[in-house]
Each structure stands twice: as structure tokens, then as C-alpha cells.
Specification:
With 303 residues, this protein is α+β, with helices and mostly antiparallel strands. The chain contains nine helices and eight strands. It has a three-stranded antiparallel beta sheet with strand order 3-2-5. The longest helix has 43 residues. The C terminus is likely disordered.
């Protein structure tokens, strides 16, 4: 009898152990009886099952943080980069997560990797670096489409890091330096423009009030003397220079009257011929010997 009692107690313990299940607050239980799904989902607490007939799968409804490994992909503008991301999801329908997919964690990880490569390939590098919110939203929609049938809800997708080639990093650094230099020059030019405008307004105000310029001169002298200098530099008054400038202006001298040029006489057309004839007549007289006083001259008729 004692042995029989012990056997009965052991059998009861085994049955109780096989029929009693504890479901945690963050879990939900899906029961299959002889392989057939029961419609009721076991809520948190102590739950009884039919020994050796029911099989319960417990799924966590907490938000799962899935780390997507770095994916090497090519952007739309043909830049090879490496991108890794993180996916936040949770099971909102335990029945679908058990029936429709074999391993929802592995399935969600594979969908996230392929979707990440697909979305990155449709965007250019500037969009990835400047507009990550839009890329994250598009990536969430792409991942959420197939996982909806598995009873999984994608809460959030974030791109963690973008690995750029070394040459691209140097190019972007030079671009950033050039942009900073351009901004500095524009700000400096804007400051010079504003300063020149204020100085012109101050000069106009001092020009209307002569005493203001004298007060400014005295203030400058006081500022120079406050440095304990042994030499005092006094600026020369500009009004005095203007006074001498106005007095030294001479009238423009008038141009002296010049006599009208005398027209040259027109050359005589027959002058060369006359000169030639005169030279011919004078040549024998110049070349002949001068006759003596006693020599008889030849008769003109004979000549």
C-alpha cells in the first residue's frame, strides 16, 4: 500500500507539473491541442493545461531591439558606403507570430537587412547625410509591409552610422572648409559695409555741427594722453587745409593770340625751266676766261 501511494503521488506530481503553466505579465500564451489552435490566448497568471494534450507557446509582447549589421551598398549617385541600423518592434498578434512564421526574430532581421539595402540604393549621399528622418520613415514603411502578416508591428527604425570611403571624407572636409571660409568672408564684408554706413552717417552729423568735430578731436587727444606717452601727436585741422585750398585756386589763364599763318606762295610751273635756262646762259660766261682790256672783242654779227 505504501508503494502504491508513493506511485500515485508521483503520478499526480507529474500531471500537475505537465498541466500547470505560469504566464508572465509581459508574455502571452498560444495553446495548441493535439496540433490544433485554440482560439483563446492565455493571459498572464497561473494557467492549467490538459496534460500531454496541450502545448503552449509563450511569446513576449515587449519591444524588441534588433541590431541590423552593417550593409555595404551603393547609393543612387554611385558611392559605396556601409550603413547599419537598429529596429524597434513588438508582437501585437501572438497567434500570427506562431502560425504564420517559423522564427519571427530571424525573419524580421532578414527583412530589415534587405530593406535597408533597397532603400539606401534609391537615395543619394546628400539625402542620407542631411535628411535621415525621411530615410528612417521610408525604411519603417518598407519593413512594416511584410511583417504585418506575421503579427509584428514596427515601432521605429533608426540609421546608426554611415561609413564613407577615405577619399570621400577628405572631399567633404575640403568642401566644409570652403563653405566656412565663404561664410567668414561674407560676414566680414557685411561688417565692413555696416561700419562704412555708420561712419558716413557720423561724418554727416559732424559736418552739420562743427563743434562735434572739435569735441571728437579733444576726446582723441585725451585717449592718447591716458596711455602715459611722452609724445603727444596733435592732428592738423582739416578746416585750415580747406581754407588754403580755396585761397590758392587761380583763374585759368587765357590762351595768347597767335598770328595767322601766312600762306606760302604757289610754286611757278615755269620756274624750273627758267632756272635751267639761266643756268645755261650763265655757264659759258662763268667758264670762259675774262678778256684783257686791250683785246678786241669779236663782232656780234660773227657770233
Amino acid at each position: 500500500m505504501l508503494i502504491s501511494l508513493v506511485v500515485v503521488v508521483l503520478v499526480l506530481l507529474v500531471l500537475v507539473t505537465a498541466s500547470v503553466r505560469i504566464v508572465q505579465q509581459f508574455e502571452r500564451g498560444v495553446v495548441l491541442r493535439f496540433g490544433r489552435l485554440l482560439p483563446d490566448i492565455r493571459q498572464p497568471g497561473l494557467r492549467l493545461l490538459v496534460p500531454f494534450a496541450d502545448r503552449m507557446a509563450k511569446l513576449s509582447v515587449q519591444t524588441v531591439v534588433l541590431d541590423v549589421p552593417s550593409q555595404s551598398t551603393i547609393t543612387r549617385d554611385n558611392v559605396t558606403i556601409g550603413v547599419d541600423a537598429v529596429v524597434y518592434f513588438r508582437v501585437h498578434d501572438p497567434v500570427r507570430a506562431v502560425i504564420n512564421v517559423q522564427n519571427y526574430l530571424q525573419a524580421t532581421s532578414q527583412v530589415a537587412q534587405t530593406s535597408l539595402r533597397s532603400v539606401i540604393g534609391r537615395a543619394d549621399l546628400d539625402t542620407l547625410l542631411s535628411d535621415r528622418n525621411r530615410i528612417n520613415g521610408e525604411l519603417k514603411d518598407v519593413i512594416d509591409a511584410p511583417t504585418e502578416e506575421w503579427g509584428i508591428s514596427i515601432d521605429r527604425v533608426e540609421i546608426k552610422d554611415i561609413s564613407l570611403p577615405e577619399g570621400m571624407r577628405r572631399s567633404m572636409s575640403r568642401q566644409a572648409e570652403a563653405e566656412r571660409d565663404r561664410r567668414a568672408r561674407v560676414i566680414h564684408a557685411d561688417g565692413e559695409l555696416q561700419a562704412s554706413t555708420k561712419l558716413s552717417q557720423a561724418a554727416a552729423a559732424m559736418g552739420e555741427t562743427p563743434g562735434a568735430l572739435q569735441l571728437r578731436l579733444l576726446q582723441t587727444v585725451a585717449d592718447v594722453a591716458s596711455e602715459k606717452n611722452s609724445t603727444l601727436v596733435m592732428p592738423f585741422p582739416v578746416e585750415l587745409l580747406r581754407f588754403f585750398e580755396n585761397r590758392s585756386v587761380d583763374p585759368v589763364p587765357t590762351a595768347a593770340a597767335t598770328p595767322a599763318p601766312v600762306p606760302a606762295p604757289e610754286p611757278d610751273v615755269d620756274a624750273p625751266a627758267a632756272l635751267g635756262a639761266r643756268a645755261t646762259t650763265d655757264a659759258p660766261s662763268n667758264g670762259a676766261a675774262v678778256p684783257s682790256p686791250g683785246t678786241d672783242l669779236p663782232d656780234p654779227g660773227e657770233r
